[in-house]
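Box 3.1 A note on notation
Throughout this textbook, protein chains are presented in two layers. The first layer is the amino acid sequence; the second is a C-alpha cell string describing backbone geometry. Keep the layers aligned when reading.
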Amino acid sequence: MRPHLRSLILAAALLVPAAAFVTACGESHDDAAPAAPKAARTDAPAPRTLAWELDQLVDAGSPGAIALVDDGHGIRLSAAGVADRRTGRPLRPTDRFRAGSNTKTFVATVALQLVGERKLSLDDTVEHWLPDILPYGEQVTVRQLLNMTGGVPDYVPGLERKMVKDRTYLTRSYSPRQLVAMVGDKPDFAPGSSWNYSTTGYVLAGLIIERATGKRVADELERRVFEPLRMDHTYFPGATTALEGSHANGYGELDGTLRDLTAFNASAAWAGGAAVTTATDMARYWRGLLGGRLLAPAQLAAMKTTVPIGHGYPASYGLGLQRFTQYEKECGVLWGNGGDLPGFSSEFFNSEDGKRQAGVIVNVNPIPKVVSGEPLGATKVTAIAQALGRDRC
C-alpha cells in the first residue's frame, strides 16, 4: 500500500489456478542460482511459507506474484503464477516490471546528489528553476516537492478517471509540462502546512534536475544511480508503451473484466513513476542507498528526515522514501517505498543499513479486493519476518 490513491476502478476477484512456483537462491548478493520447479502443492497451509503465501495471492486473483527476501546472507527470489495469461508463460522472479513510484526514490537521490555538489539547494524555489510553471511557484521549495508538503495537486486521479472512460488515454504520450498543467493552477493547501501525495511534485523535480544539469533525467539516473550500482536491468523509458527484455505483463480490471494493461505509455508517469526494473535491481538500489554508496551522510540524513503522512497511515515520508512505523515495535526501523501503475504494484522494505530486505510484486493493478486484503498483506509480513529472522512482524 502506498499513501496515494490507487485507480478508482473497483477490481473484482478473478480466480486463477496457481502456476509453478520457482525460487532462486544466491551465494552472494550479486549471483542467483537458476530457478527450480516447485514440488507438488498440498492443501495444508501450515507452515505458512512464502511459497504458500504467493500461491494464495495467485489463487485469490493476481495473475502472478514475486517475492524477494534478503536475510543478510544472500537473496532468495520466488515467483508464482503467470507473466502472460494468453500464453500461460510462468512468471520468472527475474522478470522486469514497471517500478511506479519507486522511481520517485531514484529521482530524489539524484536531486540530493546535486545538493551535495552545490548545484541545487533544497531551499531553492520552483520559480527559481522553472519560472511561471506554477502561479505559486515562489512559495514551493525543492524540499517540499520531495517530501510532498508543497501543496502541489496530484494529476494522477484526474488522469485515471479519463483512462477509465477511454482506454486510449493509457497509450497517449504526454510531455512533463502537460502533466503539470493538468492541475497546476492553484495549490491544495498553503505550501508547508500539510501533506498530500503528489506525483506532480516529482514531475517538477525532474524538470528541475534537467534544468540544473542540462541533461535528461533518464541520462542522470543511468549515470548516477543505475550504472554505479550495476542495476543492469533497470532503465527509464521515454514516451513508449513497450517493455524491453523478459518482463511480466500487467493486468487490471476494467468494466468488470481483467484486461491486459501492459501497453501503458510511460510518459504519463515520467519522473514520478516511469522506471522499469527487477526485484534484484531494487535490492541493489536499497543496499546502495542505505549503505551510503549514493549519498554523503548529510544528504542521506536529509532524505531520512520525515514528516507525518496523517490520516492514520502507519508511515512517515522523507525525501522520496517512507519509514514504515507499523513494524517498529516488533521489528525495528524499516525504510522503503513502493509503486502502483496500471498493471503493477510493488513494495520494498529494508533495515536501517539496507542489509536485510523484503519485497513483494504483483502484476495486477487495480488489485482485486480479495487480493489486496489478507493475501497481499500476509505475504508482505511473511517476507519481512524472514528477512529479519523473526517469527513475525
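The CA atoms of residues 348 and 359 lie 4 Å apart. The chain is about 30% helix and 15% strand.
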